[in-house]
Structure formats: C-alpha cells, structure tokens
Amino acid sequence: MKKVIILLCVFFLFLGLAGCTVSKNSKDLLSKIKLKNKIVIGIKNDSKPFGYIENDELKGFDVDIAKSVSRRLLGDTTGELIEFIYVTPESRISDLNSGKVDMIIATMSINSTRSHIVDFTNPYFIAGQALMVPSGSKVNSIESLNTKKAGIILGTTCEKTIRHLAPNATIIGRKTYSEVFNLLKENKVDAILADDSILYGFVMDNRGYKILPARYTKEYYSIALRKGDESKELKEELNKLIDFMQQSGRLNRIKEKWIPNLHKS
Ligand code: GLU
C-alpha cells in the first residue's frame, strides 16, 4: 500500500511539473512552433541568389538558412515543415508583427531603427551597399549621382545612404528588385544602390551591367523575430544554430554554393 501511495505521489508530482512547464512556455514562440510542428517564414522571391524562384522552385542562400532552422527546431530534414510567405522590404516588418510569419529570413540587415520594433539574432552574413550601373556608364561613385537619378528598393537601408552621400540625387523607389532593374534597363535611372549580394544576382544573369568597387555600408543579415519575451528562447536557439553553422563551416559552404565570387573581385 505504501508503495502505491509513493507511486501516486510521484505520478502527481510529475503531472504538476509538466503542467508548470506548459503554462510557463505557453506564450513562448519556440514552444508554439514545436507544438504546431510548423514554421512560417517570411522570405524573398525576387532576390537571387538569396531567395528566388527557378523552375517553379524557391531556392537560395536564405532558403538554405531557413531549412537549417527547421531542421534544428523540428528535426525536419527536407524543409517540408516550413511554410514560406513572400515578403518585400516594405512589408516584412508588418508581416512579422501582425503574426503572419514567425520569423523573417530575407536579406534583412540589423539597424538601430529596426531594433526598436523587432528582435534580431546574431548575423549570418555580411553584405555591403554598392552601385550597379550599365558597363559604359560615367557614374563612378555615389557622389557622382548628385545631379542624377538613383533607383532604390523601398523599405531598404539604401535610401538613408543615398540621402546622406548624394543629397541632391533624385531618388526613384520601387517595391521589388525587378521593377528597379527595369528602370535601369530603360535608362530611367542612372544607377541602382542596393546590397552587393543581390546586385550580384543581376550581374550574373544580365550582360552589360557592373557593380562598382566601393562599398558604402556593412549590412549584417540576421533573422528577425517579434520583439519581446515571447522570442527569447527562440532567439537563443537560433543564435546557437548560427554559432554552430559558423564553427562547423556550414555557413561558408552555403556562401560558396550561392555567391562564390562576391568578395573576391
Ligand atoms: N539588406 C538591406 C535591408 O535590410 C536591403 C536588402 C533587402 O532586404 O532588400 O534593408
């Protein structure tokens, strides 16, 4: 009888502890993701080689990062537990904060303004803002755009740079990279200021354009999460993953796969 009572006590103690764990974590995003066995990730579909579509398949550097995240959090070896939602630089923060996505992995740089409204993990890649111009262009620096037209993607960090370094340039913004690239093709802008990592994709696919050598910023790409305590454990877990990917050489391998020559020229 004594044995039975002890066993019952142990059983109820276990139930109590389990209950505490669930209620402690009920608002925690990491637990929620594990519970629903699915992650909703905001990603780009127009930013080769980071997030783009080829032969109906979404692929790129950020897609590989997303798959590593899903593997780490859910043991998902194929990426089938990820739901991708396409975001633009203009939409991504509201998509995150409205709960439409659990996290953003979309060439998004850490900056102080954004840090007030989202949480960032440690960076997984460093890009730099650069100018892309037609090969024969006389534009050779950002300052030389002062009397000219510059194309940018709305919602990116580039607008601030150009306002600062070429205050008299006429800035023409569009929501997507392809729209801004079309402006350049049609000579409606003289140059595009954007991250070298994404311009690289356009130069790979289009003859007659070049990326100028200067880099005007350092863009630390990071995974963005909703701000606050609900993201604390998720952020810790993702930082451990990024650390591991750095130490193990996995991040370098992803870089070599998607942008082998970016910082070599
Ligand atoms: N990395 C830059 C940013 O976060 C621009 C790249 C982009 O997301 O299009 O604003």
The beta-strand count equals: 15
Sum up the overall morphology in one term. elongated
The major beta sheet can be summarized as: 5 strands, mixed
Distance between the termini: 79 Å
Protein structure class: alpha/beta
Descriptive notes:
The protein is α/β, with parallel strands linked by helices and 265 residues long. It is 41% helix and 22% strand. It contains 10 helices and 15 strands. The chain has a 5-stranded mixed sheet, with helices on both faces. A hairpin with a 3-residue loop joins strand 2 (46-47) and strand 3. The chain starts with a helix and ends in a 7-residue tail after the last helix. Residues 89, 106-109, 153, 156-157, 195, 219 line the site of glutamic acid (GLU).
Write the layout of secondary structure elements.
Elements: H1 2-25, H2 29-36, E1 39-43, E2 46-47, E3 51-54, E4 57-59, H3 61-74, E5 82-86, H4 92-97, E6 103-104, H5 112-115, E7 118-120, E8 125-127, E9 129-134, E10 149-153, H6 158-165, E11 170-174, H7 177-185, E12 191-195, H8 196-205, E13 209-211, E14 219-221, E15 224-226, H9 232-248, H10 250-258
Parallel strand pairs: 1-5, 1-6, 10-11, 10-12
Antiparallel strand pairs: 2-3, 3-4, 7-15, 8-14, 9-12, 9-13
The structure holds glutamic acid.
Supply the key terms.
binds glutamic acid, five-stranded mixed beta sheet, three-stranded parallel beta sheet, 41% helix, 265 residues, 10 helices, alpha/beta
Short description:
The chain is of the alpha/beta class and 265 residues long.
